[in-house]
Specification:
The complex is a heterodimer of chains A (278) and B (311). With 278 residues, chain A is mostly helical. Chain A has one domain: MetI-like fold. Chain A contains 14 helices and no strands. With 311 residues, chain B is an all-alpha fold. Chain B folds into two domains: 38 residues, no CATH class; 237 residues, MetI-like (MetI-like fold, Orthogonal Bundle). Chain B is 79% helix and 0% strand. Chain B is globular, with a radius of gyration of 25 Å. Classes of the chains: A mainly alpha (278), B mainly alpha (311). At the A-B interface, helix 1, helix 3, helix 4, helix 5 and helix 6 of A face helix 1, helix 2, helix 4, helix 5 and helix 6 of B.
């Protein structure tokens, strides 16, 4: 019985701020009205930052999926001994939070460190000097977003790959004369679409809402705009909050829907695939 | 366990296939195998491993002369505000992890016991949304609710004459306010992590315990909780890491007014005069050390989970 009461209270606690924010956004001191939404939609910064965040999120999503999906398949098929390394790389973002990673990225790409030049096979000096000069650019931000989303992109894709019989499917395709890329694109990928798309949606919604790295790099994205707005106009910020909640809502709804369609359905231990642990 | 079995059947196969081939082909097979892995590895090296290595290495180096030193860490211990930042961050992590761990576990058990499956699915769905709803929007949701002019604050004042801020000394923009906000995304996260663990408790075990005369309390103390212990510790570590490293929510809530390690690091990046890069690196290095302990405990516990629950 206690657990029912606790559950009811928890749900109340989760719903309350949303309801209060909705009301707070449409009430402006002397009455109820949608003036804050009108203000938002006529604000040039709103559309500009939203567009920039959308572009960054899209780029991170595409890069994450293109980089990680073939690698996960490759490791499953050809390099099972690299699996611990993969697991390790997917665990590092837990121990190195975004604030530390951003700080480290700025230091790596803005200084001249001989040790790093050697360790990176000369790539760091190449990227940190003209013509690339990646420090504090949107390009570096996209790369950082891919790393931040690594844990929750790799897991659902890896789980999907395990749910189908990757090896048998591949061998069947090979024996029918299909090459590696063709097997991957036309046989394996269609079978793991739900997992890939749900990982993509999670990356997208995280990148849309990411604040820490954008703030460190000084790039004016949508969450930064929301933070600035909140310092001057609390009602407008409340309405913006509702809008970004709707965005999260849509992304997560899509993931839940897709994971059900995955071969074998959403298994008990795969519920974590739905959460972007920061 | 299943995972291990799969591994054992796949790896020897590969080996027998390659063993029949001449040595040079075997080498080229291994070489192409690793070559396919290289782009990803290189990407992780550049944007994941090197920043972490850089921070750790630079924390042991004097930022002016470039020689090895422990001075950066000694200064953290000597400066009270830096030391407080660590104390606050660790306390915040522990308090939010324990509170959401306990309450979230009870709530998860409530979800687990629900008979109506549509309600279960709705709650799980809503939890996933709430767990993903963090950062700046979450901070403003709470400011709109419990801030100085927030909806609930005003409601309590006008209807019940309860003044949260002036007579009850509550402030959302303080440590305990932050605890309230962090619990918002940690609770649903705990529910989502605990549910799969709860479903591994077989009803037969409970029946056996009851047959042997165990009460509800004895069952949980002797059977249920010991079995769930590794999962619960792993979950708590995850919650700890989540709030210990969080920056955005705390920053949006008090704009740097709450003394936490991530806030101090942001001061360094923004060029605050009292802070030099060496100190920033030591702060970041300290964060990595604390989080490493949490992550190690987390993965050690996960290994025990798979042993006990026969995954």
């Amino acid at each position: 019985m206690t657990n029912r009461i606790v559950l009811a209270l928890v749900i109340l606690y989760l719903l309350l701020p949303l309801g209060a924010t909705l009301v707070f956004g449409i009430s402006n001191g002397n009455g109820i009205g949608f003036s804050s939404y009108q203000e938002i939609f006529s604000d040039h910064d709103f559309s500009a930052t939203l567009l920039l965040s959308f572009e960054l999120a899209l780029a991170s999503t595409v890069l994450a999926v293109v980089l990680i999906t073939p690698t996960a398949y490759w490791v499953q098929l050809r390099l099972p001994q690299a699996r611990p390394m993969m697991d390790f790389l997917a665990l590092v973002p837990f121990a190195v939070p975004a604030i530390v990673m951003g700080f480290g990225l700025i230091e790596v790409y803005s200084g001249n460190n001989t040790l790093l030049s050697i360790l990176s096979l000369g790539l760091v000096p190449l990227l940190s000097n003209p013509p690339f000069n990646v420090v504090n650019t949107p390009q570096l931000l996209v790369c950082a977003y891919v790393i931040v989303s690594l844990p929750f992109v790799y897991r659902p894709i890896d789980n999907s790959l395990r749910a189908i019989n990757t090896k048998v499917l591949t061998e069947a395709a090979y024996s029918l004369g299909s090459g590696w890329w063709r097997t991957f694109l036309t046989v394996v990928l269609p079978n793991i679409w739900p997992g890939v798309i749900s990982a993509a949606l999670l990356t997208f919604s995280t990148a849309m809402g990411e604040f820490t790295l954008a703030e460190l790099f000084g790039i004016y994205t949508f969450p930064i705009y929301l933070n600035v707005t909140g310092q001057n106009n609390a009602h407008k910020a409340a309405s913006l909050t509702i809008l970004s909640f709707l965005l999260t809502f849509l992304c997560v709804l899509g993931i839940i829907f897709l994971l059900r369609r995955r071969p074998g359905g959403a298994k008990q231990d795969e519920r974590l695939d739905i959460v972007a642990i920061k | 366990m299943q995972l291990r079995a799969v591994k054992h059947t796949t790896t020897p196969e590969v080996k027998t296939v390659t063993a029949k081939r001449p040595r040079s082909i075997q080498w080229s097979y291994m070489f192409t195998s690793w070559l396919g892995f290289a782009p990803f590895l290189l990407f992780c090296l550049l944007f994941e491993i090197l920043p972490a290595v850089m921070v750790i290495q630079a924390s042991f180096v004097d930022s002016n002369s470039g020689v090895f030193t422990l001075n950066n860490y000694q200064r953290i211990l000597a400066q009270t505000d830096k030391l407080h930042a660590f104390q606050n961050s660790i306390a915040l992590g522990i308090i939010t992890a324990l509170l959401s761990g306990i309450i979230g576990f009870l709530a998860a058990y409530g979800v687990f016991n629900l008979r109506t499956s549509w309600l279960r699915n709705v709650i799980i769905g809503f939890s996933s949304i709430a767990a993903n709803f963090a950062g700046i929007p979450l901070a403003f949701a709470f400011i709109s609710t419990l801030g100085v002019t927030g909806f609930i604050t005003v409601l309590l004042l006008t209807w019940f004459h309860i003044d949260l801020y002036n007579s009850l000394n509550f402030s959302l923009y303080s440590f305990w306010g932050l605890v309230l906000v962090y619990i918002y995304f940690e609770l649903p996260l705990m529910i989502l992590i605990t549910l799969p663990a709860l479903s591994t408790l077989r009803p037969e075990w409970r029946e056996a315990a009851t047959n042997l005369g165990a009460s509800n309390f004895t069952y949980w103390r002797r059977v249920g909780l010991p079995l769930l212990f590794p999962s619960l510790v792993a979950a708590t570590m995850l919650l700890f890491a989540n709030s210990f490293g969080a920056f955005a929510t705390a920053f949006a809530l008090a704009q740097g007014g709450i003394n936490l390690v991530p806030i101090q690091i942001q001061f360094v990046v923004n060029g605050n005069v009292n802070l030099d890069p060496g100190l920033g690196n030591a702060l970041a290095g300290g964060m990595i050390v604390v989080l490493l302990i949490a992550v190690l405990l987390y993965s050690a516990m996960l290994r025990r989970v798979s042993k006990w629950q026969g995954r």
